[in-house]
Amino acid sequence: MVHLEITIFTLTQSMSLLCIFLLSIFILCFTINRRNFSNCPPSPPNLPFIGNLHQISSIPHQSLYSLSRKYGPLMLLHFAQVPWLIVSSSDMACAVMRTHDLIFATRPSSVISEILRFRDVAFEPYGEDWRKLKKIFTLHLMNTKKIASYSTIREEQVGNLIAKISNHASISSGNPIELSKLLFSFMIDVICSVVSGKFIMEEWRYAMIREVVEENFNLMGRFAIGDLFPSLSWLDGVVGLSRRAHRNRKKWDLLFEELIQAHESRENNEGQDNFVDILLSLKNDATFNFDFSMDQMKGLLADAFAAGIDTTYITIDWAMSELIKNPKLMKKLQEEVRRIVKHGDMVRSDDLNQMSYLKAVIKETLRLHPPIPLLLPREAMEECEINGFTIPKGTRVLINAWAIARKGKSWEVPEKFMPERFIGSQVDYKGNDFQFIPFGAGRRICPGLLFGTATAELALANLIHRFNWELPNGMTREEFNMGDSPGFSVHRKDDLQLVVKDVHT
Fold it and tell me: From the CB of residue 362, how many other CB atoms can be counted at a distance below 10 Å?
């Protein structure tokens, strides 16, 4: 079920709040505010007060998919007082993100996102400020030339990852390695290097970065009371979920202020090509036609950290999981990588374009395991019509990318991990093929998708090239757990632990 966290107060506070809360519930049971949808999409029967919440499991993308198979690819649900449009097919996703892309280009407000977010690209409402922020992110931080220039950083950090695994293999032969944790740390290293360069690397608080990123995605996967019952939003000021969000926001602030101040205090910024120095140069450029605030600068850094670390690590983790589950496919990928790159050498970024099967493995991983299965929510800025149904202004929309990638109409044997389906196929994840949208599409497509996939490809290629992998402790492939964890971004239910052998020793 959707989590609603309410902390324990002192006895006096608890009794007072309980009385007010129960009175409010009594009133709401009779005055629940549901928009008057005329000609609305199909909707499962709902209960008074909670709407369809009882039908949503702790893994919402799966339960929404099950409901869509009965009620259709365009479905109206009520999360307590608030109606949501659930999109579960490529045709309906195209209608939202292409035909009516401008109408659905904004983000709905939520209690947690309003606390956590800075002025960023991901959650900023649609408008002139958002367009300028996205332009800064894409032109100055994540353009094709910049992404190529980061190849040295990616290769250096992949080399460090390989060295750690090789060291484990030499001193702990036969003991499983905690690969999930290593991959998470690897992505922290990559993003820290890209964001701040080598100048401040040793001073970064890696434990804090891990903590704030994980907490961010944990909080974003929950509804606060005000998201479900707007008339009770005042309660969010005194409950635990809101306080947790404020604590995490303060940690982000501390992290960014330390980083920015350290870069500002340097005497010579020449030759620096990392995010912070680029943003500082834009902020101090009198000819730059944008009033670039410190909050917006922090927002762009938050986008890089929160999205860059978690989603890329998830992709590599799931790719290794699918390959260990399918040894024939693992062998096929190893044969390709080891044929192209000589024994003892590291796979470099320039080698990746020759590895068609590697790219197919990454695509198939993103199809079956999109890092954010329910794409960031959208909201209708105007009334429109989709598939004959009227969608009122202000309707909130969730696009189930996980469900769309499992539609038999678009995919042969959709539940099976088959990288071969992408060999010779023009279907890609860049927002033009709506049956495959792990990064979204339209104006709100993820601007860091090329950087993330380039990093995942390089890391996976080297893991496969340098090492042989086995399940630990006699575990069979049938016993290997491939379940999803609850959350805004979907990790493996269990951390990935594998036995590793270095083939170069």
Answer: 25
